[in-house]
Amino acid sequence: MFASRSAVLRRPCARLMSSAAPSSYKLVVIGGGAGGLAVASTLSERLGRGAVAVVEPSDVHYQQPLFTFVGAGLKPLADARRPMADVMPPDATWVRSAAAAVDPAANAVTLADGSRLAYDYLVVAAGIQLDFGAVRGLPEALGKNGVASNYSPAHVQQTFEFLQRLRHGNALFTMPATPIKCAGAPQKIAYLAEELLRERGVRDAVDIRYYSALGKIFGVDKYAAAMSRVAESRGVGVNLFQDLVAVDGPANTATFKQLGSGPDAGRTTTVSYEFLHVTPPMKPFDFLSSSPLANAAGFVDVHPHSLQHVRFPNVYSLGDCSSLPTSKTAAAAAAQSRVLKHNLLSQIEGSGAPAAEYDGYTSCPLVTAKHKLVLAEFSGYSGKPHETFFFNQANEHAFSYWLTADVLPEVYWKSMLKGTWCGPATIRKFANPTSSN
Ligand SMILES: Cc1cc2nc3c(=O)[nH]c(=O)nc-3n(C[C@H](O)[C@H](O)[C@H](O)COP(=O)(O)OP(=O)(O)OC[C@H]3O[C@@H](n4cnc5c(N)ncnc54)[C@H](O)[C@@H]3O)c2cc1C
User: Is 240 inside any structural domain?
Assistant: First the structure.
């Protein structure tokens, strides 16, 4: 029996590891997400077929920045999803399993089935773990009675479903106290929900409230001021130092604990809701936090500029699982991939090229409505804006929306995952040569 033409076309280009495949590679990359594939594409092409293995258990790759648009009903989930086989670099070997342990002293990764992969060099790009279980009652409540989360592909479509049914009452949007990926996403969906409810004619009957465990609406002052203005103009109530600690699904209530050092610190408040969008607490994956690669917080302990591990020089990390002290985004991972690839290749090839340095660049496109967006770009190291364009990106712009909704998703599939998009540094040289903002 012959395979159909479409089945042949869908066949993975990357070599899937079989039992006969080698158990030793020049380079092993843990994680086939945004950062892992950006690195594996370039390195597998450069080092040759069979030299690079990508350890990745999932059949599906998600372009997660699109989840905000999916949750607001502006894009279908299908736009954010591709079969992993279709995005795996053709010269890499896909090891379809989860890493269960790393032994950097022995240069080996143990897989979920107990087998071991040996490596000369290791790149760790496993992302960050969603921890819904850290909020009492949340795992039971999620996906029912108005509780959704754009952070989970299993629940992102429910955000839109529940918002379409919402007619009155409180709509709550939460931001946890832990490090998270895309720190702007918890509030972006509040503004898109506000617009949706207005369009549906029920806005006046819904009280929209944003509850953040942090003490500021956004980390960088310039954008914090812009977002405070947006929240105020749209009637979104902002409650700071409020950490979601419990959800009672059957009773439709959310309990918040007051953080900070004020007189009310530690006090809890219970609020009723008709709709609850939860950004879950997040934490490093257990196989990393329990490994010798971890820092005290469980993240892969790399040098903030070179991305090389501080104790194991043949190990590098980028993206959400790394200790890099900047905001965790795909935009950051793209910029980090340029530095990591340069430094790792120069080490492997012994070229002696001067080391590249990562400056903490990250970006958070704060979508505030259809065709409006505040394009925050900054260095997490300096805390200062680092904008690509000459206009003031703290203002809501239709251009910034178009760039984020229509251009960057294509750049992600066609260029970032293929290793050719490493952030906007080159564009900035022309579009904003003085980068004075
Ligand atoms: C709702 C939402 C909105 C966002 N909006 C934006 C935005 O507008 N702009 C932006 O730049 N970023 C945004 N992000 C953040 C962005 O998606 C992440 O920062 C980015 O994907 C990080 O890349 P990564 O490679 O570190 O991790 P990921 O892309 O998450 O990839 C990690 C990979 O590792 C795999 N993995 C996990 N455990 C193991 C294991 N044990 N062994 C092997 N592999 C493993 C996973 O299956 C996954 O494929 C958003 C994220 C969300 C959820």
Answer: yes
